Structure formats: structure tokens, C-alpha cells
Amino acid sequence: MSQTPPPNEAPVSSPCRGNILLAEDDPIYRWLLQSQLVKWGYRVVAVKNGLEAWEALQAADAPQMAILDWIMPGLDGVELCRRIRATEQGAYRYVLLLTAKHHKEDVVAGLDAGADDYLTKPFNVDELRARVHAGSRILELQAALIKTQGALQFEAAHDRLTGLWNRGAIVDLLQREALRSMRSGQPLGVIVADLDHFKQINDSYGHLAGDAVLCEVSRRLIEAVRSYDYVGRYGGEEFLIVLEECAAADLNATAERVRHHIAECPVDIGTVQVSVTISLGLVCAIADGPDSLVPEDLVRAADSALYCAKANGRNRAETAPIMSQAGRVGA
């Protein structure tokens, strides 16, 4: 009696190496392929025709590797390859074409359609394993490259010490939010904040202590604003905060919350506790037409208000007049 389990019996799984979509209309071949893939540690999504395979590939968590039979009902493997390549976005999908065709022109047609590799029927188990593992290595390399790219993008836009947006990124975000505000007519809030007497901290406790203060202040700034507001390190001990759809009253309330959150508890530096305060300059901008909000003017107005806060005793927030009328300070 045959020891081969029926095609609908699930093979026993080993530790998972990744997801594979298997599209094969022959139930015996489908089970044989699935059983070997599961044995090698892959998690398999098995379907019986090209249309089901195409539907499975539209899912958000669709496998990055697909093994497709060339001849299937509804949609054959070659046409499925063409669809995958024509609509491909984001991460690359590795396609192994399974075929009973042996002529060189058929193989070339399959590769031209977008297949990365092919395997002829009846397949050799060792060859199947080697080709699937080769595809897995390519996908692992892709994942590593994407991770590295993401890390480089984060580093390019964030301050290395504090993790906040860096100067270039926060200025770009201000530009974007100014454009959004001009389209929507909603007010835009801008805060320029500067730590008080920060040089004394560096002089008294050293620059490493100053770095620790900057990191803790950055953490508190993030806690004090809304989750969708933007906080950037503008330079040294100065910060730029961009608050979308923020009316004047809300802007003042946010600034007071920030000021209190910084001053309420000393910053621990080893065995020493350092009291830290912050001064803030605020401006609420209201667009009244295209090109009516100029980011440089917004920062300049908030910076002037910050200067007033410093001159009036520090540890306080001062508000510039509401900005409107093509970026000029209005009443």
C-alpha cells in the first residue's frame, strides 16, 4: 500500500523560514511540493489555480516568494508573472516557475515574462531545495538592504544625539505644514524653544552632562506635545516645534505644558540633579491665500518672541502677533 498521504492532509511543520505561495492545479504535485517545503521549514500558502494565486498575492501579508505552475486553469504561470512585474511596488517578489516544458525557447519565454528561475517536471527534490534556498537568500539580502536603507533614511533626517528631527528635516516639515495650512485655511502653530543657561550646565558639569540634559529635555518635549506634532533640534540647545491645526489658545496651552514639563523635575546626571528651564517664542499663523505663509518669516517671528521671553526673565513663553496677510505680522 502507498505510504503517500492524501493530497488534503497537512504535512508536519518544522521551524519556519519564510512564506511561499504555491500555485499548482495537480493535487498530487501540490501535496508533494508542499510537504517538502514545510519539511524544510517554510510556511506554505497553497492554491490550485492562477486566479486564486493572484488573489492571494494582493493580501497585505502576501508571501515574497511564489512557486507557480506554468499551465493552470484561469491564469497560467507566465501571465501571472507578467501581472506581478507590471504591478510590483515595494519589496521585490521572487518567482520560481514550475514547468513540464523543456525547450529552450519556452524557458526563455518564462524568464522574459518575469520569472527569476524555473524547475522542470518531474522535479528533483534536491534541485527544488537548492533553487528555493537560493531564492530565500536573495530575499534575505533584500530584507537586509531595506533595513539598512531605512536606518540610513532615519539617520539622514534625525539628530544623532536626541533622536529628534534634525534642522533640515524640521524645516522641511514646517514647509510642508505651511503648504497644508494654506490649502486648508487652518491655523499653524510654531514654537522656537531654547534652554535657559545651558552654557552654565556644560561649564559646571561637562559636555557629557549637557548631552544627557538635551536627551532628557527632548524626551519631555515629545511627551508634552500631541502625537502628530513635530519636534526638531534646531541647533545647539534650541528646538523648533511645528503644530498643525493649532489655534492661538491651544498653542499657548501647549507652550505652558511644555514649559512646566521641563521645569517640574530636575534632570538626573549620575548623582547630581540639575534644574532645567526653557524659554519659548510662539507664533500662530493663519493663511489668507496662496503663498501667504513663509516658513522663514514664521521662524523669525517665533524667534523674536523667544528673545522677549529671555529678556523678560526666562522660563516663560511669549507670543508674537498672529501672522497673516502674505506672511506679515498682523494685529
Tell me about this structure.
The chain has 331 residues and is of the alpha/beta class. The protein has 2 domains: 18-154, 3-Layer(aba) Sandwich (Rossmann fold); 167-329, Reverse transcriptase/Diguanylate cyclase domain (Alpha-Beta Plaits, 2-Layer Sandwich). It has 10 helices and 14 strands. It has helices at 27-39, 50-57, 77-87, 104-112, 125-157, 167-184, 198-205, 207-224, 248-263, 295-311; strands spanning 18-23, 42-47, 65-69, 94-99, 117-120, 188-195, 230-235, 238-244, 267-269, 272-274, 278-285, 317-319, 323-324, 328-329. Strands 2-1-3-4-5 form a 5-stranded parallel β-sheet, sandwiched between helices. The protein has a 5-stranded mixed β-sheet with strand order 7-8-6-11-12, with helices on both faces. It has a two-stranded antiparallel sheet with strand order 9-10. α4 links the parallel β4 (94-99) and β5. Residues 1-16 and 325-331 have low confidence and may be disordered.
